[in-house]
User: Which sequence fits this backbone?
């Protein structure tokens, strides 16, 4: 079994490095996200900025394929919802994000064509992927066994694996 040597989606993204990396990082900062690690997976996004963040990624042509869950552990949420609901996690100005470690994170590729290998127009695939992610975050999440109003998403951006963040929180590389 050989994998397609060319990926229309990834080729398109690679064609505009490094400007695209800089732009993605600008948007990570604008949405006050907390990225875990030094790349572009587990981009923890505050509840108020989810919609604008998803829209900005779609406009840039960046797909999201996996969503992990994080409990937004703030003093307020502790009182209201009994946080934390998960394990440790990265700090931010209002508290920290507690890692839920759910066994089956939402994965768009389970129900849609493989973004990397598919021959369809990348734009169409990005729209499909991000619409599925949006629907999960808005409604699907509520039927999860671990659901609590404190949960926020960690978005996994589909970008070349070698990409590392250059500026935004690039020194905070660990939990
Ligand atoms: Zn919680």
Assistant:
């Amino acid at each position: 079994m050989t994998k397609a040597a060319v990926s229309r989606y990834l080729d398109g993204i690679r064609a505009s490095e490094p400007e695209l990396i800089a732009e993605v990082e600008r948007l990570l900062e604008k949405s006050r996200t907390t990225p875990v690690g030094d790349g572009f997976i587990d981009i923890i996004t505050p509840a108020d900025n989810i919609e604008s963040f998803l829209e900005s990624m779609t406009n840039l042509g960046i797909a999201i394929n996996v969503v992990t869950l994080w409990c937004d552990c703030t003093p307020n949420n502790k009182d209201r919802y009994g946080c934390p609901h998960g394990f440790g996690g990265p700090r931010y100005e209002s508290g920290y994000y507690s890692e839920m470690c759910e066994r089956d994170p939402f994965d768009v590729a389970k129900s849609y064509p493989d973004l990397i290998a598919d021959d369809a127009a990348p734009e169409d695939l990005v729209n499909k992927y991000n619409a599925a992610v949006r629907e999960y975050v808005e409604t699907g999440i509520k039927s999860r066994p671990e659901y609590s109003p404190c949960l926020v998403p960690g978005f996994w951006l589909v970008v070349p694996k070698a990409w590392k963040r250059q500026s935004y929180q690039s020194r905070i590389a660990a939990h």
